[in-house]
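User: Hi! I have a protein structure encoded as tokens and I'd like to know what sequence might fold into it. I'm fairly new to this, so please keep things simple.
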């Protein structure tokens, strides 16, 4: 009986086994580091890296990660996730509910472009390693054959040139010169840009998703983590807008001002068919 009991206790303790954190009364250890040794000594980007990768990054790696995090925090209340956070607050939802509502819409279309772009870059890298001719073109063609003509990470509906991309690419180039990253994914990103310009006959510049995809790939993160890290960054903007809306105090703020009507496209003056008389 004792042996069976011990086996069940052992099974229960391993149900949520983790390499990330170890907690005992008066002790907290993250990836083997006592929390008191980390506090005040590492930055938040370094903590993100430690949690996700199991090791501490170099200072230059952490600085590049931090630059990407800073660049993506917000893109205004016209961004659906930000607008949703503000509307949720105006409906009486608390900050946590507003943030959850906003984060939940960061899917493949609004929020997924960075991950998708990283997948193109990784596919290009894999094709090149196999010795395929024109690996970047082949990866682009394969992505568009499966997902349609839109190439994530390039062009922008609002910015002719994304002001964030130039600065981040310059930081990547500096990191390459310092030997911090290889520059392989920066080269792939620029090749995608060149191919699109040749195909379209006009320049379609890399946007924030394309350049942060470069950074996350250069730093060795998997594409799924690229989206997760973006969500960490954008959550700061979501929180800021939700808090601003909470202080404004306006109730039930919809997607448009009441003075702007929506467009009704349904039938006019529909009538019910005549009902047959009831027989007694």
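Assistant: Happy to help. Inverse folding works backwards from shape to sequence: for each of the 280 positions I chose a residue that suits the local structure. Here it is:
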């Amino acid at each position: 009986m004792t042996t069976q009991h011990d086996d069940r206790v052992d099974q229960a303790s391993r149900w949520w086994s983790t390499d990330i954190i170890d907690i005992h009364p008066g002790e907290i250890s993250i990836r083997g580091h006592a929390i008191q040794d980390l506090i005040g000594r590492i930055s938040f980007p370094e903590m993100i890296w430690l949690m996700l990768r199991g090791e501490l990054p170099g200072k230059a790696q952490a600085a590049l990660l931090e630059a990407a995090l800073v660049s993506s925090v917000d893109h205004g209340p016209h961004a659906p996730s930000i607008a949703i956070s503000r509307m949720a607050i105006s409906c009486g939802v608390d900050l946590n509910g507003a943030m959850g509502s906003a984060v939940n819409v960061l899917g493949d279309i609004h929020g997924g472009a960075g991950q998708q772009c990283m997948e193109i870059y990784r596919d290009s890298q894999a094709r090149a390693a196999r010795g395929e001719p024109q690996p970047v073109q082949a990866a682009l063609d394969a992505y568009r054959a499966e997902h349609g003509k839109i190439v994530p990470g390039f062009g922008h509906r609002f910015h002719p040139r994304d002001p964030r991309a130039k600065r981040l690419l310059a930081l990547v180039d500096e990191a390459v010169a310092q030997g911090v990253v290889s520059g392989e994914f920066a080269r792939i990103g620029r090749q995608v840009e060149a191919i699109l310009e040749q195909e379209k006959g006009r320049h379609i510049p890399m946007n924030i998703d394309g350049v942060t995809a470069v950074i996350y790939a250069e730093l060795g993160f998997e594409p799924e983590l690229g989206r997760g890290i973006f969500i960490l960054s954008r959550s700061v903007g979501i929180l800021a807008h939700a808090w601003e809306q909470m202080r404004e105090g306006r109730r039930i703020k919809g997607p448009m001002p009441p003075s702007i009507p929506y467009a009704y496209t349904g039938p006019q003056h529909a009538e019910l068919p005549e009902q047959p008389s009831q027989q007694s």
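A useful reference point when you look it over: Residues 20-57 form one domain. Feel free to ask if any position seems puzzling.
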